[in-house]
Amino acid sequence: xxxxxxxxxxxxxxxxxxxxxxxxxxxxxxxxxxxxxxxxxxxxxxxxxxxxxxxxxxxxxxxxxxxxxxxxxxxxxxxxxxxxxxxxxxxxxxxxxxxxxxxxxxxxxxxxxxxxxxxxxxxxxxxxxxxxxxxxxxxxxxxxxxxxxxxxxxxxxxxxxxxxxxxxxxxxxxxxxxxxxxxxxxxxxxxxxxxxxxxxxxxxxxxxxxxxxxxxxxxxxxxxxxxxxxxxxxxxxxxx
Length: 240
Known about the structure:
The structure is a single chain. It contains nine helices and four strands, in the order βαβαββααααααα. By secondary structure, it is an alpha+beta fold. Strand 1 (about 1-5), helix 1 (about 10-20) and strand 2 form a beta-alpha-beta unit. Helix 1 packs parallel to helix 3 (about 70-80), helix 1 (about 10-20) runs antiparallel to helix 6 and helix 5 crosses helix 7. It comes from Limnohabitans lacus.
């Protein structure tokens, strides 16, 4: 049995999708990020970084894994699925996984902060992160022109990238001019395990659209979290 500590975010849904695809039994432990539950001592003992997701493998002496990419690799290697075992095939999957971890996720995350959550509209920052997100989408589109999936067969690389790219509208980036990316997004969205994964847990808002009252409330709560993080950073800098 796997304990999944998570919330309804792209990083959280990466792991719940993988667990559903792998048909691994798991217990969902949802943390309320707005209440700072990810900073509680009991969770920090599992994930020192205080970020979701994290897993605890009860069948492996309660082995804990934090960071979403590390969770995906652990689960793929545990089951021998969603990642090839040969060196080249494994490397291809890891390359596209790192593309998401080092590019898609951070750039879209910063686009969300400055476009949605930051109390001031700093247009150069918005343009920077939306532009870089779109450039990365274009890289995916170019690769997918000649490939059904990112690294051969469907893999954890597809899961990781899709979980973020599906929320492109929330970052203020459109993909209508990227037909190969759209084809790939649509194909993955039709997988039953993926549909189950993005409901574990369900989001309070639909991150694939915009404009309703729930979205506005969500943005306000996220803005408070951003401001709280800024204040904590300032306190840390003042400490000797």
